[in-house]
Design brief:
Elements lengths: L1 H21 L26 E8 L7 E15 L2 E10 L7 E7 L2 E9 L2 E11 L7 E10 L4 E20 L4 E14 L2 E12 L3 E9 L8 E11 L2
Antiparallel strand pairs: 1-2, 1-12, 2-3, 3-4, 4-5, 5-6, 7-8, 8-9, 9-10, 10-11, 11-12
Amino acid sequence: MVRKILIIFLITISLFLVYCNERPSKPKKEVECKKYGKDVLLPSKLENNWQFQLWRISDENTPDTVLYYIKDTLLIEYNGKNYQCFIPKWDFLNSNIDWISYNGSDGLYSMGAICGNDTFISPIIEFKYPVNKGESWEVPQLVYNTYSKKFYYNDTLTITCLSTDQQYITSLDTFSIVEYSFERSIAEDIQAKELNYYYYSPRIGIVGILKTSESKKLTGKFYQKYKIFDYCLY
C-alpha cells in the first residue's frame, strides 16, 4: 500500500514539473522607445541613445557605426541653485573625461567636466534654443591639460545659428532641424581651422554633424560626417 501511494505521488510530481516547464514564461515588459522627448535640443533621460553612421575623410570610406548616449544623470548645486545635469558620451572615444551638460530654458549648456581629482563647474550656454536665424554668441572652450591634470579655458568659440527650420534628410527620416556652426583650431600647433556644423532636431536630439577643414590637404573633402540612423528615447 505504501509502495502504491509513493508511486502515485512521484507520478503526480512529475506531471506537475512537466506542466510547469511547458508553460510559456511570462514575457518581461519591454520598455518602448518614445519618438519625442521634452522640448529641448537634447532629451536627457538616462540611457537615451542615438546611433550614427560615421564617415571619415571622404565618401569613399565605409562608414563606422557609433553610439551617442546619456551615460549618467546628476544633480549639481552651483551658487545656491540646483541643476539637473547629465553626462553624454560617444562610445568610440576612449576618454576618462566626463563632460557635463544641462538643458536650460534658453538652450543647451556646458556645466563643466570631471576628470580624476579635478572637477570644473561653471554653466556656459553652448547652443541657444529658442534661437533666431543669424544670431551669434561667444562660448569659452574648456579643455583639459594632461600634464597639470587641470581644466582651463584656452579659446573662445563664436557659434552662429544658420537655420531654424531646415529639412535634414537621413535614411531614418527627414528631420526639421536647427543648424549651428562654429570654427576652431584643430590643435594648438596646427594653424588649420576646423569648421563644424551641428544639426539638432528639438525634442529628438542631435541628428547630424559635419566637420570640415580648411587645410589644403583636405580641400573639397569632409573628414568627419555623422548621420543618424536610429535612436531611442525613454
